[in-house]
Amino acid sequence: MTTWAPDLLGDGYEQTTLALGEDPDGEGEIVATLVRYQPAGSAPRRKAVLYVHGFTDYFFQKHVAEHFHEQGYDFFALDLRKCGRSRRPGQTPHFVTDLALYDRELDWALETIRDQVQGGSVLLTAHSTGGLILPLWLDRVNRRPGGSAGAGVSGLILNSPWFDLQGPWYVRNVGTVAIRTIGRVKSDLQLKQPPIDVYGRTLHRDHGGEWDYDLEWKPLRGFGVTFGWLRAIRRGQAVLHRGLDVGVPSLILRSKATHYSMRYTEKSESADLVLDVRQIARWSGCLGDRTTIVPVEGARHDVFLSRELPRKEAFDEVDQWLAWLAGTGTVAGPVGTEGQRA
Predict the structure, then answer these.
(1) Which domains does the chain have, with CATH numbers?
(2) Cβ-proximal residues to 244 (8 Å cutoff; 6+ apart), any chain
(3) Which of 60, 21, 50, 304 is nearest to 153 (CA)?
(4) What is the mean pLDDT of residues 226-238?
(5) Is 49 helix (H, G, I), strand (E, B) or coil?
């Protein structure tokens, strides 16, 4: 029997915690936290959404939960170990040396959700780094008896997934060799990075943005990146590039443009400031099964935190795809490549 307690997001939001024991990466006792949105008077449904955040992130996007609830889904979000609600004093934010370690909390979250929906289906959705973690896990789930469908997974929605390291090919190649070498022997060593806060300023309410969230859990300049964590990312991306089979249809949302800048301009409000959107387009076909790729004009890195018009377009795309997924026939087939229907 899962015990739920009130969550910091307020009315309708609750959380439960899983003790994961001693951290394999040596930072003490670790936990994972599952948040659910269940407004007063609402009964459990037969389908649900599980959301997984990205790096320098945690779940705070109430409007996302409430949108999916309006579409008939119970909504759940997972704060991974050492992230957001799950980080404990002395722990390095988001630090993990193998992305497969997240399987424990993902398996638990899926089992907990399926208990609530009485064996119904679960739609998976994730942002940025979560958009790499989830497909890798789902590929492993799909290799178990019964596959992804047998595990109750109905589909996958990825919001600007981190499928490759940014930068020119020669920098990525040479850089990856250095990352692997240093990450193996000095996993907790942090990379030197310029203090850029442009993306954070486009989001947070106190700095000109629209959204309110905890700057201790999602600082404007982001958390420091360790070589051990980045090594795990590059290993995961290499597995993705060789091809996965997630076993379910996927929807990939991304901005139509990338804009890297150390200074804020108006362009900062309507482009992906973090990832190269061409890389997302290139590698999305590696998920396996049917894939729909939608570039959203004017979207930010987190398309669901974009300005009103691109945000509405992103949710409209989600709703159309969900209608297709449900077999209503209201949408033509999902696309295999951008601009082409499969």
Answers:
(1) 5-164+237-341 (3.40.50.1820)
(2) 135, 136, 138, 139, 286, 287, 288
(3) 50
(4) 96
(5) strand
Q: Is the pLDDT of residue 331 over 80?
A: no
Residue 324's nearest CA partner among 246, 316, 244 is: 316
Pick from 175-189, 194-208, 223-237, 300-314: least confident: 175-189
- At residue 4 the predicted structure's pLDDT band, cuts being 50, 70 and 90, is very high
In terms of Cα–Cα distance, which of 140, 151, 15 is closest to 84? 15
3-state secondary structure of 28: coil
In terms of Cβ atoms closer than 10 Å to its own Cβ (0-12, 13-18, 19+), residue 5 is exposed
Average pLDDT of the residues of the chain: 93
Query: Which of 142, 146, 4 has its CA nearest to residue 76?
Result: 4
Q: How far is CA 44 from CA 37, 114, 123, 164, 226, in A?
A: 11, 11, 15, 38, 41
- Under a CB-based contact definition with an 8 Å cutoff, are residues 301 and 199 in contact? yes
| pLDDT recorded at residue 171 | 67
For residues 239 and 136, the answer to whether their CB atoms sit within 8 Å is: yes
Least confident of 184-188, 222-226, 336-340: 336-340
**CB of 295 closer than 8 Å to CB of 268:** no
Digit-coded pLDDT (tens) for 47-106: 999 999 999 999 999 999 999 999 999 999 999 999 999 999 999 999 999 999 999 999
pLDDT at residue 175 is higher than 90: no
Which residue, 27, 29, 11, 10, is CA-closest to 19? 29
| 338 pLDDT above the threshold of 90 | no
What beta strand segments (E) does the chain contain?
A: 5-6, 13-22, 29-37, 47-52, 74-79, 121-127, 153-159, 250-255, 291-296, 335-337, 340-341
